[in-house]
Specification:
By secondary structure, this protein is of the alpha/beta class. The chain is built from six helices and eight strands, in the order βββαββαβαααβαβ. The strands form two sheets. It has a four-stranded antiparallel beta sheet with strand order 2-1-4-5, with helices on one face. Strands 3-8-7-6 form a four-stranded parallel beta sheet, sandwiched between helices. Helix 6 links the parallel strand 7 and strand 8. Helix 3 crosses helix 4, helix 3 crosses helix 5 and helix 4 packs across helix 5. It starts with a strand and ends in a 7-residue tail after the last strand. 32% of the residues are buried.
Amino acid sequence: MLSVQQLACERGRKRLFSDLNFQLQPGECLHVQGANGAGKTSLLRIVCGLAEALHGEIHWRGQDTRLDPGAWRAELVYLGHTPGLKDELSAAENLHFQSQIDGCSLPSEHIDAALQRVGLGRQQQVPLRRFSQGQKRRAALARLIARPVPLWVLDEPLAALDQPAQQLVAQLLADHIKAGGLALVTSHQPLGL
């Protein structure tokens, strides 16, 4: 379903990777590992269409993702190193705002259920500026629950999380994969799958 062919990436004058090929089918997770600066984040950003590859192609369901980037991005959720949330908004407001950016409007019940699942049910109306880094990461993870899509692209999803939250991420990933989802994940830690 996701096919990466002959992908190459260069930053500055340094070649990070070249001739990279892989395929992900429903029910599979690819755990990308490597040293800092090896190009893991660059790979994820290229796959999502947020950065340009030096050369190569990315196909989703047999179609080049460059042909309809909007439709491609509607099929995935990308969580980067930083949570990508607005500190002045609450967790619930952030999920609502992000869903509008994603082109869908989430019912408040979905937002509430997602925040409950990540352990933020009682704090969902608190501005994120009052959250710890781990709580902000949990708020970002709620997107995975609130907006079901086939492909999760996760960059260091375990960063800043305590042990119970890391177990939650492992369970979310396992459930997503078991349901036929796909995941492309970078992590310096074991994913628990």
